[in-house]
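This follows on from our talk about sequence and fold. Go ahead and set the record down below:
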Amino acid sequence: MKEDNPKVFLHYSWDDAPHKAWVLFLAKRLMADGVDLFFDRFDLQIGSNNTYFMEKIDSAQKVILIMTKDYKIKADNRKNGIGYEYQIISSIISKSISSNRKFLPILRNGSPEESIPTFLQSFLFLDMRNNNTFEKDYITLLRSIYEEPEFKKPQIGKKPDFVKLSKAADKKTIKSTDIGELFKLGRDKKFVHKNLGEPQYDYGLIESFWSHGIQIYYNRHSENVDGVLLKRLPSGVTYEGNLLGVSLGSSFAEVKSILGNPINWGLPDAYTSFAFYHIDKRYLTLAIWRNKPDKDDSDFKIGSIYGIAYCEECSALSCEPIVAITIEDIRAGRNSKFLEKGLETFHNVDPNASFFHEPYDMVPAQFGIFGGYFVTVAFRESKTILVFWLYDLGWQSFVVRMIANRGMINENK
């Protein structure tokens, strides 16, 4: 569907107050996601022509049918407004019964036999009876409205060269790379290089693999993998698989349907949001576009994931998320769990200073001479520079041992 705002008619029966509240909630979500909705509770006022409104079904690009036990009774018996609308619907469907893409049936309560009208029994429907799976089901509905299926039918290819196929079949089978094993963390460099090849860049404990769109972080003590970063590397290659069900380019609505709400958020700059998850004692950080970036990005889309970081609690890769969470806690006036000594953690820094609410840039973690890591944060407006010292307790997890003021950026240098 090429239209940015498809016109959709919401067809349902007024069963009871909870059902009407659920339908209203659905209508508001659809409107927020760009759907131009024909909805009686939005469009009908005193003096409106009800019959004229119901006939909008014919001009709508899609019609959502919310089916319940009461709905079936009214539809099958042609009662009230539902009966009239259902007459229009069945008439239109009968003209294109084998190629229907306009009418989207939803089962809201009851069994299919109890709630689906006789004429619609043979049509596929979306089961939205379980409130616990609403987000996942809602995405499925939204994809149907926009005609953006999760699995698109690929273009048909050319007839194969059977001579080449036969020669290839005679060759020794090549074992596929087991990249998924890396996401379990704990593997050594030998395993990484066997599966990914030699890195294009080797920074000691960080290696970049341009052919895969993967950056690997190693533990400074054991030299085993303790972090994985998926993002577009300078080669232009983007990792196309998923990590914990999340893929680059996914919408946050899709992420939330899989992982739920994050434990915290970070807003480091004007165009990025960080969503933080803590899963099985590991950190998952998602970088999300929240505004148009400074540089042109052809596949930029607000609300989509452009970076995925997954790491152990004591990985260098966890330092930036921990600092971002700490800053958000300070902004909100909360006692951050990462501050080892509470207010004593601040050295020459006022935790109530206004610069904490400014956008900031963060320098990746650097090794600390006395252990742990240092993360430098530059606040853009005041040009204040803070250094966060993160210390790994027992090589297991980090605390923020000190936050120190390093003065201001000197732009004359």
